[in-house]
Design brief:
By secondary structure, the chain is an alpha/beta fold. It has a single domain (about 5-275), classed as Alpha/Beta hydrolase fold, catalytic domain (Rossmann fold), CATH 3.40.50. The chain contains 8 helices and 9 strands. The protein has a 9-stranded mixed sheet, sandwiched between helices. Strand 4, helix 1 and strand 5 (about 90-95) form a beta-alpha-beta unit. Helix 1 packs parallel to helix 8. The model has no long low-confidence stretch (mean pLDDT about 95).
Amino acid sequence: MNIGPFKKYTKEPNDICYGSIYTYEVSLPIFYYKKRTVRLYLPEDYDKNKSYPLLVMADGQNIVDKYTSAYGAWEIDKRQHELIKEGYPSFIVLGIDCPVGIKERALEYSFPFMKMNKKEEGKELNKADLKFESHLLFNYIVDKLIPLVKKYFKISEIASGGSSMGGVFSLALLTSYPEVFSTALSFSPAYFLYNKKTLDEYMDKAITKIDKNHKFFFYVGGVNFESKFVNRCVLMNNYLVNKGYNTKLVIDESGEHNEATWSSHFNEAIRYWLRKDK
């Protein structure tokens, strides 16, 4: 059964064990890969008469189903099933599929208008003809997608989440719209791609609009490529702690840079974000 413009996903094969996925085809207001699929995950105990927290995720194709994933699946349906058994409230997940190109994905999930470190990222992401589109995506999420979801579903509070460049996305989205998002769940955020001074200046300006009720979760691993993410992730957590914000930092020295690892730590983030049902 469809819900408004959201069509129930029934394509086989799929890897959906609990709950349901609904899709909605959109045309984004950006200059590349405009046509995207929006994926909405409804929990196994969804009740149209109840209100639910909403988690807006980067890389929507990866949230549940391995058959639609680009890099691997978070298996959020399985993780949420575990949380429900622990007594935590269920929640809805909204995700937009990422662009096909790696460089476009990086620009789309970046801090608005912030250049990346050429030394770290290389020439491909610093061509003059590539534009930073994150502000357009963020505006679309807040002005179009979230109101559409609220038209058909009862939403209580909203968090942002993602991994790697999606981890940047989660913090960038909250700092762009702190009046909309209560919590950022950032897994292996790629802050090392930015000049530290420039990023600190961005945060110094953004933080003036973010009250102390906001929460920030950071996860980072330590194996191989993932080890590049540790230092700057810790520094961002410490920056927010020193500013008096509520944060949680999880470091897994055996953690790799992939969806299976992020999935294994996903429930830690949700336990931090949401309170148990009474």
